[in-house]
Amino acid sequence: MEQTGGEISDKVPGFIAWMDTPSGKVPQISTTLSNVDHLGACMARWGINRMGYIVPPGLYAIGTPDSAALVVVTANYKMSYDRVRSALSGRNLWLLVLETFGVNVWCAAGKGTFGTGELVKRINKADLQKVLTQRQLILPILGAPGISAHEVAKRTGFSVQYAAIRADDLPRFFDHKMITTPEMRKVSFTTYERLVLIPVEIVLTLKSLALISAVVFLIAFMANGYSASVVMALACLGAVLTGVVTVPILLPWIPFRSFVLKGLLAGLGWCSLLYYSVGGCSWDITTTAAAFLGLPAISAFYSLNFTGCTTFTSRSGVKKEMHLGIPALGAAIMVSAVLLAVGRFL
Amino acid sequence: MTGMCYIKNVTTLKLNQTACTGCGRCIEVCPHQVFALEGRKARIDDRDACMECGACAKNCPVNIIAVDAGVGCASGMISEWLQEHNVPGIKSGGRCC
Q: pLDDT 10s digit of each residue in chain A, 346 long?
C-alpha cells in the first residue's frame, strides 16, 4: 500500500497562517527552510524515514497571492516541495501539490502519478476555477512524461507552461518574462548530483550485501579457514561497492557507453587492487581465475542497476544490456564458483 | 552532459514529420534536445540522446510521436519480468523510486 500525503492542516511544513479564498482556507507557507527541513532531507538521502517524507497534496499560498497570481505545480515528495517553496522566496504565487505518494516529480511522471488525471483532479478539488481569474499553470519540465498539456487544457481550461528542469531556475524564469532559456531545458548529471544518490543506493543494497558477504564468508570458512574467508567476503563486498559507489562517481571518466562494460572494467580494477594488496601471487590458478572472472561480474551487475538513477539511459538501451549482459554475468559468476570448488580438490 | 552518452541505435523514437504542425512542444519538453525545428516541422536532431522518457509523445497535440517509454532501470525491469512470469513473492514497484 502506497503512503499518501493525507489532508492539509496547520501542521504542514512551513505553515504560517490560514488564508481565505473563494473556495475555503489555504495554508500560507514559509519559503525559508528550517534546520528540521535540512535534517529531514539529509535523512531521506540515507533512506531514513524515506517513505514518510511526504506532504499533503492540495493548494498552498506563497506570500499573498491574489486571483491573478500564477500557479506552480509540484510533487508531494517533501524535498520537491521544499526545493520549490524556497526557490519562490519573495513572490506571491500559488503552489499546487499533486499526490505522487512521496515520489519526486520525474520518477512520479514516469510512473504516471504526476500525471494528467491527478493534475485535473487537484485542479477540481482545489476549485482553482473559483480561486483564480487567470488560467495558466507553471509545471516542471521533468513532469512532462506524465502530463499531457493539451489534454489538461481540454479538460480544465488551464494552459500548461513548462518552466524549467531545476527549481533553482524558477527565479530566473519569473524575472525574465517567463521565458525558458535553452540552459533551463538541459538536464544535468554532475558529480554532486551523482554523489547525493549514492547513500540511498548503499542502504538499498545493504540487505543483499550482508547476505552475499555472510554466505561467501561461511562457505569459505568451512572450506579454507578464517583468513581466506575474510579475504573472500571483503572481495565480494568491494566488488559490490565498486558497482554501487565507484562506477557512479567515476561515470563520465570510465570508458564505454555500456554500464555492464563500465562495471566490468571497474571490477577488474578492484580485483587487481585486491590481488596486489593481499598477496594474490600466492593464490593458486583456479582462485586467481575465479576472482578475475567473478568479481568484475558482480561489479558489472550493480553498475547496470545504476541505470535507474541516471538522467540519460534509455529503456531500450537497458533492455539490450540486460539481454546480453545478465546471462553472461550469471555464467561468469557460476563458472567462478565452480572454479573455486574445483580448486579445493586439486 | 559531457562524457555521458548511452548506447547508440537503440531508441524506439519515431516521428511522422509530414503531419507535424510545428507547435514546438516536443522541443519544450525534451530534456536532451533531441528535436529541432526545420522550417515549420519538427525533426529528430540527435536520436541517440533520446532516453525514451516519453514526454514528447505525451505532449504532442497531433499524436505523431511514438516511443516505448517506461521503467528504465535494471531492477525495475527484472521485477516487471518476474511479475509477467508470475514468480511468487514479487510485488509491484520493486525497489524503484
A: 578 999 999 999 999 999 999 999 999 999 999 999 999 999 888 888 777 899 999 999 999 999 999 999 999 999 999 999 999 999 999 999 999 999 999 999 998 999 999 999 999 999 999 999 999 999 999 999 999 999 999 999 999 999 999 999 999 999 999 999 999 999 999 999 999 999 988 998 888 888 888 887 777 777 667 777 888 888 999 999 999 999 999 999 999 999 999 999 999 999 999 999 988 788 889 989 999 999 999 999 999 999 989 999 999 999 999 999 999 999 999 999 899 888 777 6
Q: Does domain A15-187 have CATH number 3.40.50.11600?
A: yes
Sign, Cα dihedral of A263, A264, A269, A275 = positive
Question: Is the domain of B74 the same as that of B88?
Answer: yes
Q: Which of A103, A110, A185 sits opposite B53 (nearest CB)?
A: A110
The ipTM (two decimal places) reads 0.88
Q: How far apart are the C-alpha atoms of B97 and A108, rounded to whole Å?
A: 8
Cell numbers representing residue A160 in the block: 500548461
Same structural domain for residues B52 and B23? yes
Chain A: residue nearest B49 by CA?
A312
Distance in angstroms (rounded) separating the CA atoms of residues A286 and A284: 6
Q: B18 and B58 share a domain?
A: yes
* Distance set, CA B21 to CA B17, B33, B93 (Å): 9, 19, 37
| Gyration radius of chain B's alpha carbons | 16
Q: Which domain holds residue B93?
A: 70-97
Domain spans of chain A?
A: 15-187, 192-345
DSSP string, B28-96: HH-TT--EEEETTEEEES-GGG-----HHHHH-TT--EE---S--SHHHHHHHHHHHTT-TTPPTTTT-
Dist. CA A54–CA A190, nearest whole Å: 26
**Binary contact (A185, B53; C-beta < 8 A):** no
Smallest Cβ–Cβ distance between A319 and the set B55, B77, B95 belongs to B77
